[in-house]
Design brief:
The complex is a heterodimer of chains A (492) and B (98). Chain A is α+β, with helices and mostly antiparallel strands and 492 residues long. In chain A, 40% of the residues lie in helices and 19% in strands. Chain A has three domains: 299 residues, no CATH class; 112 residues, no CATH class; 60 residues, Arc Repressor Mutant, subunit A. In chain A, strands 3-6-7-10-1-11-12-13-14 form a nine-stranded mixed sheet. A three-stranded antiparallel sheet of chain A has the order 5-4-15, with no helix packed on it. A two-stranded antiparallel ribbon of chain A has the order 8-9. Chain A is elongated. Chain B has 98 residues and is mainly alpha-helical. In chain B, helix 1 packs across helix 2. Classes of the chains: A alpha+beta (492), B mainly alpha (98).
Chain lengths: 492, 98
């Protein structure tokens, strides 16, 4: 961490204690308790109905798909699925929920007691999962006034399209000890959520959100220090920087004789600092009580086993397998997984590609292409097409240089590699008779260079090979051209 | 069961109610009576009695994840005292002082 270098003595004297609360917006078709669509991007208040607007006399009905997603994540994290769980009302006055309460879970969440293994450069640690519970998302407020923020606004405008979209809140134990571990935890959780297909989990776009509870204590102490909750962490980078900053801030404060105050702090990405949002002088009083409109959820054990049987291979298992079976390095696997290209690689290998070669193309050319265009490479390239491209290189149809051009066309939607090659007439010229005729012509046109080669200046052949490449618009197989030129100049 | 004036004022503040001193005094004794009545449950709810989660005995009332109709926007905001640009307009939001 370079943002906030910490003095070595402080690092030895203090230990950070971090717990994370992560919210994941589920990719269900409908909201948590009504049939309104969850499609993103509708005009304000076009995805609402009497239920999610909190009209009197309406009744919420639980979305089975959201419950199934919660159970999927719970099983993937090794949680116990509660035989009976329940929804509570979390009461507060704020217009982001039209009901003046949010339906959430309180003392009996659907999942409890899992664990997540997290690896950083310094080692592997297990982070306990306290609970996973279901709740509904809130609406979005637009604050109208000079500042455009809540503070100083004259009034606010509310869009309830998002109100009622299913969320899972995943609460970790305070088992995290560094900014790097915090980022690794969220990255691993995100990978699991993506593998399960329950959310698109985009931190930047808010379909995955993270709050960090940070405190410090003298190293070796078993007690917990006073914690600050840090909000507005919209990327892994923000999370890493904010936690590192907050640890440093608390250490400095305590060493200067101050006290850490229990409060909510906002991460300012541009300023690289956290600032006080509100001080929690009293604990917030949400007056949770069981929602009488919703009956308990008691998943049939057979349903749970059905869900367990349908779980995909989890990311940690996939990574280990790629290293073991295909001999890939940890870094290669990390790049493949980060770009969502594991399935593409496996399909390519299945179709006959050599794993190391295919990985090199994916982690270099394909990842670079996707980065330039901000595109999802797994949607742009099928594994079988990568295998086809590598086969065209192996049998001499394409040079590596031309193969790169063909790959770009394939990624841009130009068809399969064979189709691109045929359409652009890119086959490498490897026909010996045809190439021999070109070589004869080039020797005739470059008498001086040809003579130098005959006199024993081997380097002069480069000019002749270049001539052959120009004459064939780069399609000549350079190794073959070189061989044919030498044969001709030696024989004369 | 005793309640202090501060307990009553705290609950009133959470409910955004502005109570006169007389009302606080009146509600303090009424709320205390209600709580004492509810506490009788404790005489029978011993450790071996699991808490009742819902009085109906129903379980797992769920719907399939299939989209239905939403309201037309004009209808959705028609009952709002104020609206602007298709959004619900609400007064200035003030953070509560606890």
């Amino acid at each position: 961490m370079t943002d906030t270098p910490r003095a070595a003595p402080a690092e030895e004297a203090w230990e950070a204690v971090i717990g994370l609360e992560v919210h994941v917006e589920l990719a269900t078709a409908t909201k948590m308790f009504c049939g309104c669509s969850t499609d993103f991007g509708g005009a304000p208040n076009t995805r609402t109905c009497p239920v999610c607007l909190g009209q009197p006399g309406t009744l919420p009905v639980t979305n089975r798909g959201a419950v199934e997603s919660a159970i999927r994540l719970g099983l993937a994290l090794g949680c116990d699925i509660a035989p009976s769980s329940q929804f509570h009302r979390k009461n507060y006055f704020y217009p982001d929920m039209p009901k003046n309460y949010q339906i959430s879970q309180y003392d009996v969440p659907i999942c409890r007691g899992g664990a997540l293994e997290v690896s950083t450069d310094t080692g592997t640690t297990t982070v306990g999962i306290t609970r996973v519970h279901m709740e509904e998302d809130t609406g979005k407020s637009l604050h109208i006034g000079a500042t455009g923020r809540l503070h100083g606004a004259e009034y606010s405008l509310v869009d309830y399209n998002r109100a009622g979209i299913p969320l899972l809140e995943i609460v970790s134990e305070p088992d995290i000890r560094s900014a790097e571990e915090a980022a690794a935890y969220v990255a691993e959780l995100r990978a699991i959520v993506l593998a399960l297909g329950i959310s698109d989990a985009k931190l930047e776009e808010g379909s995955m959100r993270c709050d960090a509870n940070v405190s410090i204590r003298p190293r070796g102490s078993g007690a917990y220090g006073t914690r600050a909750e840090v909000k507005n962490l919209n990327s892994l980078r923000s999370l890493r920087r904010a936690v590192a900053y907050e640890i440093e801030r608390q250490v400095t404060h305590l060493e200067d004789g101050g006290e850490v105050v229990q409060e909510t702090r906002h991460w300012d990405e541009d300023g690289g600092r956290t600032y006080t949002l509100r001080t929690k002088e009293t604990t917030e009083d949400y007056r949770y009580f069981p929602d009488p409109d919703l009956v308990p959820i008691e998943p049939d054990p057979a349903w749970i086993e059905e869900i367990r049987a349908s779980l995909p291979e989890l990311p940690a298992v996939t990574r280990a397998r790629l290293m073991e079976v295909h001999g890939l390095s940890r870094e290669q696997v990390a790049v493949l997984a980060g770009a969502g290209l594991v399935a593409v690689l496996e399909e390519a290998v299945e179709a006959g590609a050599e794993a190391g070669e295919a990985t090199n193309w994916l982690t270099n050319e394909v990842v670079a292409w996707a980065g330039e265009r901000d595109a999802d490479p797994a949607r742009a390239l099928a594994g079988v097409h990568l295998a086809e491209l590598l086969a065209l290189v192996a049998d001499g149809t394409l040079s590596k240089k031309l193969a790169r051009e063909v790959l770009t066309d394939v990624l841009e939607g130009g068809g399969t590699p064979r189709e691109v090659v045929a359409e652009r007439g890119l086959e490498q010229l490897s026909d010996e008779a045809e190439l021999a005729a070109v070589c004869d012509q080039v020797i005739a046109d470059n008498a001086e260079a040809a003579e130098e080669v005959r006199q024993g200046n081997a380097k002069a052949i480069g000019a002749l090979v270049g001539g052959v490449m120009r004459a064939t618009q780069g399609k000549a197989n350079p190794q073959l051209a070189n061989k044919l030129l030498r044969e001709r100049l030696a024989a004369e | 069961m005793t309640l202090s004036d501060d307990d009553v004022r705290h609950v009133a503040r959470l409910a955004r109610l502005d109570l006169s001193d007389e009302a606080v005094e009146q509600l303090r004794s009424q709320l205390a009576d209600i709580l004492a009545y509810a506490e009788q449950v404790g005489e029978v709810a011993t450790a071996d009695v699991p808490p009742m989660r819902h009085p109906f005995g129903l379980r797992n009332v769920m719907r399939e994840d299939l989209a239905g109709e939403s309201l037309p926007r004009d209808e959705a905001i028609s009952a709002a005292p104020e609206a602007e640009d298709g959004r619900f307009r609400v007064p200035r939001i003030v953070e509560a002082e606890q």
